[in-house]
Structures are given as C-alpha cells and as structure tokens.
Amino acid sequence: MAELSFYDKVADRAGVPEVTARALTEATLRTLAERISGAEAGALAGHVAHELRPLLARTAPEEPEVFGYDEFLRRVTERAQVSPLIAEQGAGAVLQTLHRVVGHREFLEALAQLPTEIQALAEPVPHTP
Q: Among 45, 52, 98, 126, which is 20 to 30 Å from 35 by CA?
C-alpha cells in the first residue's frame, strides 16, 4: 500500500476533498511562513516533501510579520477560498500533519513564535463518539 501524501492526510483530518486539502495546505503553509522567522520557515521546509518547500520559502525579510489568530484565519480563508469554518479545520489539519512530518522538537521551535491561539490549532481535537 502506498504511503498517503501530505494532501491526503490533510483531507482525511479535515474531512474535505483532496482538491480542498491542497488549497488549504498551500494557504496555511504560506501564512505560517509569513508569521514565523525565515530561519524557522527554512528549518521546516527542510523536512517537507519537495513540492511543499516553496510554500515555506521566505522572500521577505528574516523578521516575521506580527498578526494574531483572526488575521491568520482570514488569510487562510481568502487564499484557499473556503469558509472560515473550513479554514479553521483545514489550518488545524495542516499544522497537525506538519507536526508529524517535521518532528516534535523542530515543530515546537517554530510554534514558539506563534500566539497561543494559533498554536492551539496544531493540537489534535479528540474524537467524540
């Protein structure tokens, strides 16, 4: 059995079709790259599939932009062209998938630069029966 792609894992976690998962992944990684330092974005990029690396590339200065949860979700919503609810679920799914791909230490170092509300998106939501 072939290993699931990053997009498949996001689609699974967010409960969305793969085409939506692709849009959410691109939107979330681009927004994340804007919000963390260039060094951290580069460190994360070194751990993801080759096709995802440009999404984490920073062309801007080393210093991250400073914005909170609402602006993070607004950017993801706009870029992925989805509803705010889907953006929130999708951003969480992307961050959770990224955590597993990157590894715990690297991921926590990048997340340390984010406000608590954005960090919370990366926490898996327990499934209720």
A: 126
Q: Which contacts qualify for 80-85: CB closer than 8 Å, 24 or more apart?
A: 80/20, 80/23, 80/24, 80/26, 80/27, 80/28, 81/23, 82/20, 82/23, 82/24
Q: What is the pLDDT of residues 65-105, one digit of tens each?
A: 999 999 999 999 999 999 999 999 999 999 999 999 998 89
CA distance 23 to 112: 25
Q: HSE (CB half, 13 Å, CA atoms) of 59?
A: 3
The CATH architecture that domain 6-121 belongs to is Orthogonal Bundle (1.10)
Q: What is the DSSP string of 27-88?
A: HHHHHHHHHS-HHHHHHHHTTS-GGGHHHH---S-SSPP---HHHHHHHHHHHHT--HHHHH
